[in-house]
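Researcher: Good morning. I'm working through a list of sequences from a screen, and I'd like to move beyond sequence-only analysis. For each chain I'm collecting a predicted structure so we can compare shapes side by side. This is the next one on the list. No need for commentary yet; just the structure.
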Amino acid sequence: MTKILLIEDDLRLTDLIRRGLEDEGYEITPAWDGETGLRLALGQDFALIVSDIVLPGLNGLELCKTIRAAKPGIPILMLTALGTTDDKVEGFDAGADDYLVKPFEFRELKVRVRALLKRAENSVAHSSPILSCHDLELDTVAKVVKRGGTTIRLTPKEFNLLHYMLQHAGRVLSRDEIAEKVWDTHFDTGTNFVDVYINYLRKKIDKPFDTKLIHTRTGMGFVLMADDET
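Model: Good morning. Structure tokens for this chain:
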């Protein structure tokens, strides 16, 4: 049975989510504060962590950062009432894989959980060890990115975005596709955090180097390829 850690201080919501996910066949371990959630996350093996951001004691963002540092492969879904672009970026920067804004329908939570679990399974089963473009290399096992031999530090979400772009190097990727495939969801067209993360990547993997790899195709999206190939 797939084990999920649910960290949420709203006891009524915890019970609703727990019963709903158990009906789907998952084994749910609840925690009602950040410190207990962290202890459980680091002490047991879970396939997925679902956590609120506003928690007693240790808040969800610090919790997420600590778990991500210790267990980089575990998917984390954040639940919160904070839904602006800046709030979402902050959550993703902390290491979250997906972000669900309260209030939400249970069927949406169910879809997000299933998608995150499936992506985690596929990542283990099908990822290639090294992906590269020009002098850029991404090691999917060691989770290390290098350009021209220089190690580049990326956040988990930046790493996932670069990973997807390298998997599809040379192909124009729309914002909708990036949102769906990297974040496993559809986002309002009014949000711009796909562009925010593209800019984060550009500053780290392009700005210090002569050859640019990330290019904008106006009205279409973004493509990863060496600029002398365009």
